[in-house]
Amino acid sequence: MTDLTRLTAADLAASLASGEISSVEATQAHLDRIAAVDGDVHAFLHVSDHALDVAADIDRRRAAGEHLGALAGVPLAIKDVLVTTDMPSTSGSKILEGFMSPYDATVVARSRAAGLVPLGKTNMDEFAMGSSTEHSAYGPTHNPWDLDRIPGGSGGGSAAAVAAFETPIALGSDTGGSIRQPAHVTGTVGMKPTYGGVSRYGAIALASSLDQVGPVSRTVLDSALLHDVIGGHDPHDATSLTDQWPSFADAAREGARGDVLKGLRVGVITELPDSGFQAGVSASFREALDAMAAQGAEIVEISAPHFEYGVAAYYLILPAEASSNLAKFDSVRFGMRVNVPGGTVEDVMAATRDAGFGPEVKRRVILGTYALSAGYYDAYYGSAQKVRTLIQQDFENAFSQVDIIATPSAPTTAFRLGEKIDDPLQMYLNDVTTIPANLAGVPGISIPSGLAAEDGLPVGIQFLAPLREDARLYRVGAAVEAVLVDRWGAPLLERAPMLGGNR
Q1: Domain range holding 217?
Q2: pTM of structure
Q3: Which of 105, 206, 274, 331 is the most exposed place for a label (fewest CB within 10 A)?
């Protein structure tokens, strides 16, 4: 019998639509997989008690002849930054332990309306602050390729769940690389849409001008199918774009079967040095570029001189916005409450935030509060915003010369748990190639590009496109994916150790 957990979301959807399998069968298979492996992976913080009931309802509606969405009956995992009415929403923090939201995030509501079956909530760095999922208050997630290594962050839970075949697709959020960097280290696909292209309503805010919700999957088509479900204007989100978006699934299918790489101008940033990048990452990147060139793509060197300042600017802008956004967790309005006998409101607030926030959250809140303080605002936060403008101009200049930009998705493969936990700067540098897209709001996708020679761990290549050109990324991503899988003879995850693969 076919292992239903090995099927892509697209293949599952086709089998469901044809009546070959039921949603209950697909959901049960994934729940069984979670029960079998998540004790080692720890991708989930909460597994739904209602998944089989939802699946049974989808089966009944399909049997009654009701017209259902393209992904109806397909299981879905949800990053715990997205609030849900039927499961706790903690954002990986003790301060929100057990919190039940009175409403669903828009992307969750749209997923339910489309007939997807929520399996549970996935682990993450606390309030999405981290690159390793080691900053979760509920313990780290492990990389399915090597359980002693990190799965990336902040959305390591969603990426690990997809890579471990616990779910075919997942929802994530990306503030500086939190979808794309985990995709890089787990051999999965991660897409950060254009800022405003997917609603942030119900996503527990970290940095409101940077946060973006997006899909996590094992194939480009699966990400596109989920993006079609969750994208589009939302009046609840003041930053939501009113654009009419094309079918991203159609774009991915076009890329997989078409000749979209011929004549494609691919920009490679001259200021992005090999130093600082693991040798296997750089080699995989060059091999992917060579594969594109063999299909007729034109590799063009471009200049983006301000990208190197992106990390510094980001780690002023993000903490400043986080300091403001997290002020609501004050023991009065949201979250836990630590009682201080005889204490003032300020005493209770201080005790609650001290007990409820982890060290990384405290570090960034302090940094952000300092950057916004009188006498320092212009020198730090104001200067960082000027750098952000320069990076946006770099993108505009680059896209006047090329169709897309390509970079490695991250500098290294997955490092060992605990290896960088005490070195914040080294941890922050994991996002050096992903951060500029968030600062500029442009879309970015990471797809697997191979295994690093020195450790046999996954590597990703990132593609960036102009604002609102998400469909272009799906076309290119699917085309490159098809070329690379043809070279490898099978999808990269077929070689993952948790599947008995031989690296």
Answers
A1: 4-270+399-499
A2: 0.97
A3: 274
